[in-house]
Amino acid sequence: MNPDPQKRVVPRPEPLPEPSPVKAPRGKGGRPKKADDDKRTMAIQVRLKPASYAYVQGIAEQRNSSMADVIRELCNGDVTVISAEQEALLRQIATMANNLNQLARKANTDGMRSVALLVERRAQELGELLDRYAK
Known about the structure:
The protein is mainly α.
């Protein structure tokens, strides 16, 4: 029993159970679902002649995409192939545009008079190339 009447014995309370972590409801993450008509569910296998295969492969390499993407674009009519002459013209135009940019930079540092004639000449050449490309 209690040896000291002045002291009262208080029973030790039982420890409370650890609270379980409550997870907050989350939204559904990830990529949105596609509509049924947007899903690629059909597959085909096609045999090509070596020339046709090389053609599709060349377009894929030029566009830095897969051959399957190129064929899908061909089916949708989205592929435009440029000729070697058009590609050469585009390369010339890019070079001339770079030259004009360099001349403009020089004009900003040296003054407009020093490069006005050069810029005008290059602009005429660029206009002629654009006219040839538009035909």
